[in-house]
Structures are given as structure tokens and as C-alpha cells.
Amino acid sequence: MTTTFEKFKSTRAGNYCTLPTKDVEILNPTPVCDTCEGELVWNPKGGWLKTGDFEHVGATTCTYARVRATCKYCGTNEKGVVVYKQHAWHDANECSRCGGVDGYAIGD
Fold first, then answer.
1. Are residues 16 and 36 in the same domain?
2. Rounded mean pLDDT of 19-32?
3. What are phi and psi of 6, to 5 degrees?
4. Are residues 14 and 63 in the same domain?
5. Do 63 and 34 have their domain in common?
6. Domain range spanning residue 77?
7. What is the 3 state secondary structure string of 27-63?
8. Which of 18, 46, 55, 86 is a good FRET partner for 12, with 20 to 30 A between their CA atoms?
9. What is the pLDDT of residues 60-108, one digit of tens each?
10. Does one domain contain both 46 and 95?
11. What is the pTM of this model?
12. Which residues contact 13 (CB under 8 A, 6 or more apart)?
């Protein structure tokens, strides 16, 4: 079991990012659809441009596979824990489980 503090102890946070502030176990969940909660799998030749896309596993009534946000640091994809936010100068995925923020500039 690896924790966030162990894995990122000698790592430097990038621009608009914050390293985890809570020491939690790092998870490796399977991707799930944010709309129907169904399991997803990556198809490298899927999608409109055939450059890769997520697809549902098995039969489903959901027509579009929308991948739920996953934390870059602790790996959770639990509903409502990782939240996408738009700020004035950057956008970010903010995780309440580990306190980490994965942000990126939106340009000038």
C-alpha cells in the first residue's frame, strides 16, 4: 500500500497545482461513466477520428461514454470527490479526498 505522502514526497508541484495535503492510500479504480455509472474500457481505435476513446463494457442504454474525473494524485474517481473548476487564469481538478489540485493554464 503506497500513500500520497510517500509517492510525492520529493515531487515539486507544477504551475496551478498543489500536492496532496492529506496522507491517503493511492487507489487504482476502473474508469466509470459519469452518466450511467457503467464500467468503461479504453479502445485505442475508437472514437470519431479513430484516435482512441472510452467505450462502455457490455450492453447499456447510455449513448455516450463520459469518463468521470479521476484524481491525478490519489486515484479516486468517486462521485463528487474530484471536482472540475474554472478559475480566472486556470482550470483545475480539485480532490477533497487527498487535497491535491491538478491545474493547468488556459492561455492568454
1. no
2. 94
3. -65, -45
4. no
5. yes
6. 1-29+70-108
7. CCCCCEECCCCCEEEEECCCCCCCCCEEEECCCCCCC
8. 86
9. 788 888 999 999 999 999 999 999 999 999 999 999 999 999 999 997 6
10. no
11. 0.84
12. 19
